[in-house]
Amino acid sequence: MNNSKQSKNKIFLVGMMGTGKSTVGRILANKLGIGFIDSDEWIESESSLSIPEIFHTKGESHFRILENEFITVGLPKEKHVISCGGGLCIQKGMMEILKSRGKVLCLWASPEEIVKRTNSVNNRPLLETKNPHQKIKEILKERKAIYQSSDYLIETDELSPSEIVNEIESLL
Known about the structure:
Order of helices and strands: EHEHHHEHEHHEH
Radius of gyration: 15 Å
Structural class: alpha/beta
C-alpha cells in the first residue's frame, strides 16, 4: 500500500496495556459503523504466533518491527478505529506517523487500575515479573510524555467502556 495515498481518516487508540483500547475500539467502531483493527491481533495473524511467543522466541525488538509493519502496510485505506499495542506509538517518529493518518486518542489509567485490569491475563510478556505493579509504574514513567502528546488524553479509571466511547464521540 502506498502510504502517500493514505487519507487522514483513522482513529488511533493508544495507551498502556489494560486501559481498554481493544474493548473501547470495538464498541466505538460498531457505534460509528466503521471497521476495527487491533494491531496485536493483526500481528498474531500475520506471524502465526501469539504475542508472548513472539517475545519469547524472537524478542521485543522483533515485535516492534512487526508493529511498524502493521502501520506501514497493514492499515486499510477506509476509515477505521485502530487499537494500537501499548508500545506501538513509543517508537521514534511513530506518534507523528499516526497523527498524519488520523486522530490519536490516549486512554490513560493509573498503575493500580492497570494491575486490576491485567491481573488475570496471561498474555502480557512485559508483566512477567515478580512485581507487575512496579513494572507498570516504570513503563508509564518512560512512556508518559509520548502518550500525553496524543491529540486527546482520556482518564479511564472511573469510566466504563461505554462512558469512554461517549467521551471519545464528544471529543471528535
